[in-house]
Amino acid sequence: MIDYGAPVEKGTVLARIDESIYQSLVNRSKAMVEQAKAAVESAEAQVAQAEANVQRAVADLGQMQAKITQTDRDWRRAQRLGPSKALADADYDTSESAFRTAKATLAVGEATVNQTKAALKDAQANVHKAQATLSDAQAALNNAEINLGYC
């Protein structure tokens, strides 16, 4: 113990700061770092899912394009045969309907591909955001550890 006005030497500890508050801040910062790491992993998983969705949408679009090719041929054939009455009216109508349906389905497929690509970009942006949050949490942890060291 050092009394008031007593001589002291260089390096003598005159006071100690209660480190429990600063230790609590370090612990909280560590938890925030772990939470941010989990957010990065989750965002990366969302990117993987979005990439799979894009692949699926592109594959579906390929099937739709094949279907439109076939129904287009059938419809053109029906148009050639229609006036000659070599084709029943019901078959003519069915060919036309199938072609129009395939055409509309193709448009939906193209929109789905665009939508899944946009979702992929959004997921990729979320990864960058999560990584920035992780960097911020790591900086806060570093700061808390430095402050704890001052105790």
Major β-sheet, in short?
none
Low-confidence stretches: none
**3D shape:** rod-shaped
Helical amount among residues, as a percent range?
over 70%
Radius of gyration: 34 Å
H/E topology pattern: HH
Break the fold down into its secondary structure elements and pairings.
Elements: H1 20-81, H2 89-149
Helix pairs in contact: 1-2
Name the features.
rod-shaped, mainly alpha, 2 helices, 151 residues
3D architecture notes:
The protein has two helices and no strands. By secondary structure, the protein is mainly alpha-helical.
Sum this structure up briefly:
By secondary structure, this protein is mostly helical. The protein has two helices and no strands.
